[in-house]
Amino acid sequence: AQSVTQPDIHITVSEGASLELRCNYSYGATPYLFWYVQSPGQGLQLLLKYFSGDTLVQGIKGFEAEFKRSQSSFNLRKPSVHWSDAAEYFCAVGLRSNDYKLSFGAGTTVTVRA
Amino acid sequence: NAGVTQTPKFQVLKTGQSMTLQCAQDMNHEYMSWYRQDPGMGLRLIHYSVGAGITDQGEVPNGYNVSRSTTEDFPLRLLSAAPSQTSVYFCASRQLAGGPTGANVLTFGAGSRLTVL
Asked: Is A34 within 8 Å of B40 when comparing Cβ atoms?
């Protein structure tokens, strides 16, 4: 069955430390891949997306993600987190044959401590 | 440009009551969709539409109805609310042509928090 897995429910990181959020997918072919962020009480904002080509994708707010086909993963990273990065992060995938219907992972909540 | 507008932001219902969550977009997007967000489950697709007069079921459609009489509006109806429908609901839209490239990505509303007692 097709699925999107975010193994970490909650991550706590110190301000200035690096952050990596994991995302694995199970699809027959490489899907379109997205990372969204949701700040408390807000809607979802797109951080970055991968369609094809360069497997390292740059996004907004200093985030990047790397697509690894062999591991079916699309992990999100940030070298140095800021207190404003505290939020919930969602990985999402869309089939290339039906790209408007996105499936989301369960989300990872990031807490930033001073 | 208002984007995707959802109303109301908050609503409390009693079991068995009906209500409609409104969603409007001013970007001329063909595709519109409703998701519900529950803790530990991420966002799950309820219903979607690829144009006026066309709707289809998503992953969790039971208990919800939708219609798409205009390009701009995509209301979500709960005919008889149940406590299991307590959730945060998000409407999202996108232009269909050209795939999810460039700026053509799913745009979300701010959400509607529904509590069913």
From this structure: no
pLDDT at residue A34 in the model: 94
Q: Which two tokens stand for residue B2?
A: 């208002």
Within 8 A of B106 by CB-CB distance, chain A residues are 34, 46, 100, 102
Q: Mean pLDDT, to the nearest integer, of B95-113?
A: 80
A93/B102 Cα distance (integer angstroms): 16
pLDDT tens by residue, B53-65? 999 999 999 999 9
Interface probe with B: pick from A9, A44, A93, A97, most Cβ of B within 10 Å: A44
Is B106 close to A101, i.e. CB distance below 8 A?
no
**To the nearest whole number, what is the mean pLDDT of chain B?**
92
Q: In this complex, which of B31, B42, B101 lies closest to A100 when CB atoms are compared? A: B31
Alpha-carbon gap, residue B76 to B99, rounded angstroms? 25
**Confidence class for position B102, pLDDT limits 50, 70, 90:** low
